[in-house]
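User: Predict the structure for this protein chain, please.
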Amino acid sequence: MTPEGSDEPRDGGSDEIDEILVRRAFAAGESVIEAVRAIHGDAPRVLLGEPESDAGASPLVRPIPAEIRPRPATRSRFQVQGEIARGGMGVVFKGHDPDLGRDVAIKVLREESARDADALQRFVEEAQIGGQLQHPGVVPVYEIGLLADERPYFAMKLVKGKTLAELLAERPDPAANRRRFLSLLLDVARTVAYAHARSVVHRDLKPSNVMVGRFGEVQVMDWGLAKVLRGREAERSAPASVSIIETVRSRPGTDSLAGSVRGTPSYMSPEQATGRVESIDARADVFSLGAILCEILTGAPPYPYDKGQALELAVNARLDGAAKALAACGAEKDLVELAKRCLAAAKSERPRDAGVVASALAAHLDAADERARRAEIDAVEARERAIEERKKKRLVVALGAATFLAVAAAVGGFLLLGARHERLRAETASAVQPLLDQAARLRGQAARTGEPAEFAEALSVIERARSLVDSREASDELRKHVASSADAVREEAARSAERRERERDDRALLARLEEVRFPEAAAPEGAELVALGAAIGAALAAHGIEPLTAPEEEVARAIASRSVRDEVAAALGTWADASDASDPTAAAKLRRVAAAADPDPVRESIRRAVAGSDRAALERLAASPELESWPAVTLATLVGALARAGDAEGAARTARTATLVHPGHFTLRLAAARAHLRIDPRRPDDALDHYAAALALRPGSVEVRHEMARVLEEDQANPTAALPHYEDAAELRPTDTHLAEHVERARRAAEAK
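Assistant: Here is the predicted structure, written as structure tokens:
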């Protein structure tokens, strides 16, 4: 048989001719089935019947007549039948694969989006993520290609069923069939946990993006906003045995969403609502899972469905309403606590990823099943006891011999009952001990990391153990052990919270000291010097450090216990320098407290040299061969002392060496910038480089932005370059009228140029 369009005779045994014919068939745009028919004269077609769906067939919102249906490029086998849905970036069509006899969904980039480079990349990335996430809960992607007009498309499984949003809306009340919805959420959490293990964050989890099939299959839809974590984020999220997803945006710096807000505000974490893209990780999805859990329990998400109002509440993490609704929903305590942990405003207080959420949900459902099983067993035992009681009453009226036998049977039954209780207690201990071991491991891990979510996870496991103990036969010793384990975790969590609070206060104190230009100020004099000392004193007092009024030893011990001891001691030295002229007694006391709190010999030498106005001693310290081995705070203190002593060259030289050794130290960068400016304000290039480095380390520093803008405006006569920095500083400190005046002045000067 000669295939149509072929001039060559067939040799049934020639593989080479078959290969030539197949290549020609594909070159002509034929499908696999058409190619097989061309070679063999016939091709099989197997079509399976479709099960009826509660949701019916996939609805076509806009069927397309056969004569005008769009076709993918020539090599694609898919046939487009009609439109299913339309979104902001893409259109989803129902298609048919004639080779395999199955319907598919074909997502096509909209014409207006095809000209947007970011939309194009994000569309391709969605296909790449769907193609690499091999999980039953993720819709598989079959093919990616181009239409005839070069718009990209990708074909995927056609999902039939109802969304979780539709199922939730059908409930008569939030308590109805709660276990089913918790089971669905568990499937969602497990799917997202798999994505997190592959370093992918969904970023738009909500009930309408969860599809539930007729047979209970759950699939998480729409990965168009997904973020692929990189670097350390990915290392923390993905186990070594799991490969990391790679997409067109896998390279650092390719996510163009920085500063933008995308997603659904009603289910959105605060960091996502404020557009802080770089800070988004798996815990953003954990917040969304908590929001879905909140809707399952209360009937509403944390924020209202009104987009504008929801976004405003999400930006400010206004979760009071959700907390009240959860408290009043009547659900089990562990579910309410899980929802609150997931909805924590601070992401450090949320479970670390969806896997933790899935474990907690599984534990709750297991415990609920165990309680149901125990209740069923208790009911059976109660019926058995009632039957035994009736038998005993009949035996009471029997003959004496029968009575004797009944008593003997009762004694035997008592002994058997005791043995049964012992067996049940042993079974309970066997079930509880692995949970206690797991809780102990989690407690040890939490003690190392200090993560509140990990302490909460340990408590959740202990609560599972407590549920088993409460619902089964258990010894008093086991009950005490479970209770003491819970108490130990709570105590460790409280100590960890106290440590975190101290660390948070230390960071805030350090930032406050940096904002009052510590330790390197622009050599102030007179009233400026007094103002500098007062500002440092106010910053320390705001954090409970008052060296001029409290006993010296007490203040020194309090400072020595802080993680920023060295920086606080250096601030006391700067305050003492500022107080020498106006209050020498106070200056001497401040130096004594600094020396007691910070016994470092080099910094003590700097303090003595400053107190004695010994510039030569400072210069000798700057020339020390040990200079490069000193800590950053010591070098910053020395740079400041040299600058105030009038040695601008020495300060700049020391700052240059110091920033090479400690390039990531904010205060040193600021000191280096100011030192270079004092040498020659007309040549600020080196100073601007150090200001830029300081700004990268502290993007929220008003002081750096203000100084950088002033240098650009005054020393470089470039108000156009200065204006954005003034505007950013004014936005960070909106009540500062001085900054507002700078903005207006720079704007007028820029317009004039």
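The first helix runs from residue 15 to 27.
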